[in-house]
């Protein structure tokens, strides 16, 4: 019989002749049947049940509010909410969000200091302009 087509599967090439079955036993070059010919001889598939993922603790909402207020420029609100959130998290160990509350505190203090310095610079500029204004 002459080969009619060549069929490629992944890395193996097999020639299918007319009248032959596609699912014929797999043999090596010497003509011996390989493990693929006997599905029972193949090792079982590896793996198992999905791994267990622990349930995360609920987030303290004030910690998130502290960070949002601090980033939005309301530093005093972020500082107040951050301190309250850290106290609640310390008292209730089943809550998470201490890092968010701490970030809200840091950003809130930085924003408050920056706004205070800008206001002081603005007032100093106004006083300087008033004292050095030309008199008519």
UniProtKB/TrEMBL annotation:
The segment annotated Disordered runs over 1-49
Give the transmembrane ranges. Answer: 62-85, 105-130
Q: Which residues form the DUF4190 domain?
A: 62-118
**Ranges of biased composition (kind: Basic residues):** 1-11
The organism sits in which domain of life? Bacteria
Q: Keywords of this protein's UniProt record, alphabetized?
A: Membrane, Transmembrane, Transmembrane helix
InterPro entries cross-referenced by the UniProt entry: DUF4190
Please tell me whether the keyword tRNA-binding is annotated for this protein: no
What name appears for this protein in its UniProt entry? DUF4190 domain-containing protein
The species this protein belongs to is Allosaccharopolyspora coralli
